[in-house]
Amino acid sequence: MKSNIEKILSTVIHPEFQKDIITLKIVNDIKLNGDSVSLTLRSIKAKDAFIKSIGKIAEQRIKSEIPGIEKVTIEIKERATASKKDSPPGTLSGVKNIIAVASGKGGVGKSTIAANLAVGLHQMGLRVALVDADIYGPSIPKMFGVEGALPEAWEEDGKTYVKPLDVYGIKLNSIGFYIKPEDALIWRGPMASNVLTQLITECKWGDVDFMVVDLPPGTGDIHLTLVQLLPVTGVVVVTTPQNIAIADARKGVSMFRSDKIDVTVLGLVENMSWFSPPDMPDKRYYIFGKGGAERLAGEMDVDVIGQIPIVEAVMQSGENGKPVALDKDSVIGQSFQELAHAVVHQTNERNKTKAPTKVVQIKK
Ligand code: ADP
Predict the structure, then answer these.
(1) How far is the CA of 191 from the centre of ligand 1 (A)?
(2) Tell me, what's the pLDDT at 182?
């Protein structure tokens, strides 16, 4: 029976080390008593963001795969931290500007904008990093053709470091490299915040002019975590022209401007603004309505810094691993170059007039 449990647990993979928890010797003291199982999980590093979720997965698998087991008790023993210092290991010290890309709702093209904005900034000769923090649906690995990649990780002075991938000259790290889509539900909530912390602070970014962070959609805890963790220079809010998307974008702008978060909104990007048939490039069909982002911009005193048309190549590029902005001379490529220039301009203006964003300290 005990070996049965070990067999089941050997299917639970630690996302960071990419090995199962039996091989990693994380599981200890398995005890079986009637319909109850108890065991201990001992983390192999201090502050293991994954250990609690591993516990939940282990519990679910034992209950679902061993008939008659009603109760699973898992004790988690975390390895003591080598040093009491809680601050990030300086991996962000060379990063000049952090631009978050947010949206009020999913499906408006936030990841598409983040990915192609990163490409546009790189085309301007800037040093660019892209962080995919969209825990609910990390799509950047697919867009850059690096699905299933695992960045190199190593231990140094008792801390884990990760080397970002280098794709099309952009330094890349994604939550998608560490979690499986089928386990995504378990990583939500507070665990997501821990994983996000690791994703950013354990990565050796080096010198970076612009770090673009693709946030999860909506207005939630994870956004608060980000500003507690990172000095975000500014945020770009993506919307489509429909009223419902605009209403959610309004919530997003308000959240970033709230006292609790207080991050500069660099501007709105209206995605899917119009459609031009390939054989009539001068004709514009405003499929989702016209002027939605402009109205919100007027109301909230924020600029529209980009309008991106609906283009079939954008959808294809989401599948073929090459962001559409890599084709500099295409109409869509030019839209993203304009957006990149606008982001640089707004960031420079922001940096002229305001002090660097401080990492938020939550007052209880
Ligand atoms: P989000 O990150 O907001 O969930 P995505 O960037 O994943 O949205 O985009 C959702 C879908 O819409 C994807 O299939 C993407 O290829 C497509 N899409 C996004 N922007 C455009 C556009 N301007 N033209 C055509 N398709 C687009």
Answers:
(1) 27
(2) 67
